[in-house]
Amino acid sequence: MLTYRRTLAASTLAVAVLTATACTPGTDAPGGGDGTGGKPAAHGTALAAVDTLTVKGRAPKTGYGREKFGRAWVDVDGNGCGTRDDILKRDLTGVRFTDGHCKVASGTLTDDPYTGTTVRYVRGRSKVDIDHVVALSDAWQKGAQKWDGETRRRFANDPLNLLAVDSATNRRKSDGDAATWLPPNRAYRCTYVARQIAVKRKYGVWVTAGERDAMKRVLGACPQQKLP
């Protein structure tokens, strides 16, 4: 009888321990599928910044036109060169000029961010576009239609929002957001999404719920990705 009572007591104690363990959160608790193991995203990361963006539905595209963001490629920084040429100089290698230091005549886009390939730039028959990472139309539908003209002009010419990329791929992107388009070059997706987040946070452009979720899925594979 004594042996039976000891066995019963030990069994009861084991059940109590298992129950307490199951109800107490610990470091081994499964995460929510975002690649962080349930831990809060680290401060300063793109993943943490996603949750600072306003989430709203997409507004109508009514009234949108490229001219709403000012004349294309103006000299916003006062260096005597248009924004397009500034970005070409920044992103191309082996740059040659048609005049002095502004108009880029030719160069090479090595390791194009969207495709991972090398693309040759020749003025007048270029296969390189300057892409708005956050498309102007996308911004228009997510807050920019309420901005003043000067803010829209700055947005359209902000180097943070501009990249020299393969033209064919850029045109397939059109005005897609992260929920509808990501670079075919998977190695660049974390950097791309982080850049979109940085731009949207800087200007207060909101995201849709689907866009936010798509951003988190991408960043789940690189939770330490920093904002540019």
UniProtKB/TrEMBL annotation:
The keyword Nuclease applies. Keywords: Endonuclease, Hydrolase, Nuclease, Signal. The keyword Nucleus does not apply. Residues 83-217 form the GmrSD restriction endonucleases C-terminal domain. GO terms for molecular function: endonuclease activity. It holds the Pfam family GmrSD_C. Residues 1-22 form the signal peptide. PANTHER family: AMP-DEPENDENT SYNTHETASE_LIGASE DOMAIN-CONTAINING PROTEIN-RELATED (PTHR24094:SF15), SECRETED PROTEIN (PTHR24094). This is HNH endonuclease family protein. It comes from Streptomyces tanashiensis.
